[in-house]
Amino acid sequence: xxxxxxxxACDLAIYRLQSLRPIHDLADARRRYDDALxxxxxxxxxxxxxxxxxxxxxxxxxxxxxxVIGPVRIFNRKSMRGF
Length: 83
Hints:
By secondary structure, this protein is an all-alpha fold. The chain has helices at 3-18, 27-45.
């Protein structure tokens, strides 16, 4: 699944889950929901793509984009074995 489609699906799901909370907690989720729907509408109309190349792989977001490296994972399958 393209990463952007995964993010959009998460934004839509978060909004649906947030709708059970008080209205003042909903503003950010609502904005992300509206943005996700707008982007999906552009994809559907052909104004925007999901960034998938002819070979079926995702294309780079920007030329010269740098890889972000975070801290070493503390919890993983190996370290959590036996718990």
